[in-house]
Amino acid sequence: MSKKQKSNNTKGEEVMSSLKEYRLSLTERAKDIVSKLTLEEKVYLMSGRVSEEELTEAFNISSSDVHYNYYPYPAGGNQRLNVPELKFCDGPRGVVCGKSTCFPVPMARGATFDPELEGKIGEVIAKEIRAYGGNFYGGVCVNLPYHPGWGRSQEVYGEDDFLLGKMGSALVKGVQKHNVIACVKHFAFNSMENARFTVNVKADQRTEQEVFLPHFKDCIDAGAAAVMSAYNKYNGTYCGQNGYLLDHVLKETWGFDGFVISDFIWGVRDTIGSATNGLDVEMCNTKFYGERLVKAVHDGLVSESEIDEAAVRIVRTLLAFTDAKDPQEYTKELIACQAHIALAKRAAEEAMTLLKNDNKVLPFSKAKVKRIAVIGKLANKANIGDHGSSRVFPPYVVTPLAGITNLMENSEVDYYNGENLELAVQIAKAADAVVLVVGNDHDDEGEYLEPNDVAKFSKKIGGDRKNLGLHKNEIELIKKVGPINPNTAVVLIGGSMILMDEWKDYVPAILMAYYPGMEGGTVIAETLFGDVNPGGKLPFAIVKNEEDLPKIDWYADEITYGYYHGYTKLDKERIKPLFPFGYGLSYTSFQLSDPSFIVDKDNIIASCKVKNTGEMKGDEVIQFYVGFSNSSVDRPVKLLRGFQRVTLEPGQEVTVNITCPVEKLKWYNPQTSSWELEDITYEAYIGTSSDPNDLLSGNFRI
């Protein structure tokens, strides 16, 4: 059958009602192929093909602008029976191969509260993967940050499981539109870096089911075709051989039809343990599978039927994505093309989160500001996030300093790194406006490796954050310079929450920029000077004191994750945050009215009117929360259960409708091992942040 003929029965033609049904329709064909394979060939399908020599060479690349995953890493394949290879490309802020488009980190994209935009980002990433010759994207990272100091918080969308699920699902759908396999990671309970290879994470069943797994299931329900296991242990067993997670939860309970791959190099600890507990592919090299797995089958320690099941899953999935009709051609010219860069810029625009704007200091006036002081070493740094597996090498990066200089070409821009406080004060005094750029970089947070973890690395890289605030010298800089000039704004760079109670009163304006990607400096400048109206919302709460967060030991051998974290913990303990979850200001103003909450069959529909009452076009994110004070069991005060980003012209008013499945109101009963819906009156809230003062309220009954 020709590829053209096959395309008549593809998901691209929408003959099948879902991705899953399409893939399952290929089961018999996959079984037939597998039946013709030798044991060695079947095990080969399950094996990463990067050799030790190639891996050592990759990690020892001398160039500072080439990633160690600079080409799609291969696994499996069978030429004799036309089974395609798996060709892995990493993420999640873009493709780590070559010179790719660099988007803002997912935490910044979480601040957009815009799944439609995230879907488009997924499409662009997939197009560039195809242009590199890849077919697999290992960048759908939805781990929940139990504590905001987790070094890889920047790789996820925020602290809330509902937000993680919505954004991750959108990325999955976007990526797979272009026949690239979307891999969701790291399954599961992976939110510690320093101890990630050894820590045993424990949780009770309600915490597991209601807090740490729902967003993974959302991505599976969206059609994700692959899952990556985590390095850590869960309840005493390494996740790469955790039959409860990989077989019982993922494949049996959720009906996942794709395949599971290991995290790289250290993700498999035992041949028999992984092969008999649901791990289908060892990546990126072969150490425990290959000849060892073949021998284990011959010795009767692993049944060949388990090998067959893994092989069928792999073949079925690869066929589904290879046979499907491509919506377009994928030439090298697509990589970092102008349209893709424009989308990265738009993502940064939507992410910009204005936290403080006393006396409407921002936006600065282009006409009045003739001399600008830009202070802080991060202002002149290409600072786009972690330098580990997620690092992208774009063709260029616009720094905040370059962005301001380019935008304000007719003004004088004075840059100083801020080392000498007295000199910084003098520069600030002479300026019409002052921009202090402070925060974190890859040395402060990111993927963690110690020198003795792997000989290729000569120093510690990234890791969990010991300090949740700014560096001491940056705090001193803000306190000294901030009061000098009334037109001063702080721009924060970082991947998660930054404590700021110590210094926030020293400056009138604070803009959270996250790690904003290759066009981040352009967008920071345009936001400061009013070409962009900030509409981002915090995807995490910012506390006043670190003591308000869950207790954490980044080097623990064992840790128990509790039911509450983030805004749910603050709500439950009646602790007022410095800035609430979902919070963000605008240069315009919005008025909400006429809240309504109705139950329509299997959905709750929350609605309200939203009006732009200011003088500038702007975005607002309307958020729907459900409260559980009438519950017979311990539940959060409220949970995010829907959101909608809207763009309004001055004076424009629209009605926003947000739909939430009734299914999302259930709680997990460990006594019955089932999800249950309570027959109670639920509180309902709709508004612009999780703060009660920003919400209109009502109730409903199922």
Topology at a glance:
Elements: H1 3-6, H2 19-24, H3 27-35, H4 39-45, H5 52-59, E1 73-75, E2 86-90, H6 106-110, H7 115-132, E3 136-141, H8 161-176, E4 181-187, E5 200-202, H9 205-212, H10 214-221, E6 226-229, E7 233-234, E8 237-238, H11 243-253, E9 259-261, H12 271-275, H13 291-298, H14 304-323, H15 338-351, E10 353-357, E11 371-375, H16 400-407, E12 412-416, H17 421-429, E13 433-439, E14 446-449, E15 461-463, H18 472-481, E16 488-493, E17 509-512, H19 520-528, E18 558-560, H20 566-572, E19 590-600, E20 603-612, E21 618-627, E22 638-648, E23 653-661, E24 667-669, E25 674-676, E26 681-687, E27 695-701
Parallel strand pairs: 2-3, 3-4, 4-6, 5-7, 5-18, 6-9, 11-12, 11-13, 13-16, 16-17
Antiparallel strand pairs: 1-2, 7-8, 10-17, 14-15, 19-20, 20-23, 21-22, 21-26, 24-25, 26-27
Structure characterization notes:
The protein is of the alpha/beta class and 702 residues long. The protein has 3 domains: 3-333, TIM Barrel; 347-568, 3-Layer(aba) Sandwich (Rossmann fold); 588-701, Immunoglobulin-like (Sandwich), CATH 2.60.40. It is 27% helix and 21% strand. The protein is built from 20 helices and 27 strands. It has a 6-stranded mixed β-sheet with strand order 1-2-3-4-6-9. Strand 26 and strand 27 form a beta hairpin. The N and C termini lie far apart (52 Å). Residues 1-17 and 453-458 have low confidence and may be disordered. This is Beta-glucosidase. Its EC number is 3.2.1.21. InterPro entries: Cellulose_deg_GH3 (IPR050288), Fn3-like (IPR026891), GH (IPR017853), Glyco_hydro_3_C (IPR002772), Glyco_hydro_3_C_sf (IPR036881), Glyco_hydro_3_N (IPR001764), Glyco_hydro_3_N_sf (IPR036962), Ig-like_fold (IPR013783). Keywords: Glycosidase, Hydrolase. GO terms for molecular function: beta-glucosidase activity.
